[in-house]
Amino acid sequence: MDIPKNQLLLKRPINIKAIVTPRWKEEAQQQLQGQLNQLDQQLQQLEVQGQRAITELQKQSIQPPGPQIIQQIDNIQSQVNQRKSELLEQKNQSLQQLQQVQLLELNQEVSQGTIESIFTVELGDNLLDKWQVEILLRDGVVEEIRGDI
């Protein structure tokens, strides 16, 4: 790609927005519900794995368990509780997002993130105008490109 000497190629972030439609809401709710189901599965697996590790330690130790085994059990339980807390925080965030999606009104615009784009700039261009570009989607289809492309 040959660029004239009086131009520069630059990268810019492009904001992606979506128009809330019944289809968009349904897909967003399904995605969040899938995340919630996955987090529930991870929580169950964590409990089982933690209990299995503790049971295995108890089987290998003499009865009653010595201070070293008790410390190892406490460490396992602490790790399980920490990871459980992280998963529950993620679950809480997903529940809040699900509630927010349910409250969105149709035809409202919501942010979907950003992508990068390469653009040219030359003498006399307004860099701020070229920097502020966003794409508006309706059910995944580009409905509008806003800004100086």
Describe the structure.
By secondary structure, the protein is of the alpha+beta class. The chain is built from three helices and four strands, in the order βααβαββ. It has helices at 22-60, 67-103, 127-131; strands at 7-19, 109-122, 134-138, 141-146. The chain has a four-stranded mixed sheet with strand order 2-1-3-4. α1 runs antiparallel to α2 (67-103). It is elongated and about 80 Å long. The model has no long low-confidence stretch (mean pLDDT 92).
In short:
It is built from 3 helices and 4 strands; from the N terminus they run βααβαββ. The chain has 149 residues and is an alpha+beta fold. Strands 2-1-3-4 form a 4-stranded mixed beta sheet.
Largest sheet: 4 strands, mixed
Strand order, largest beta sheet: 2-1-3-4
- The chain-level structural class is alpha+beta
User: Total number of helical segments?
Assistant: 3
Query: What shape does the CA trace take?
Result: elongated
Low-confidence regions:
none
Beta-strand share of residues: 25-35%
Rg over CA atoms, rounded to whole Å, is 26 Å
**Mean pLDDT, all residues:** 92
Total E-strand runs: 4
Helix percent band: 40-55%
Distance between the termini: 18 Å
The ordered string of helix (H) and strand (E) elements is EHHEHEE
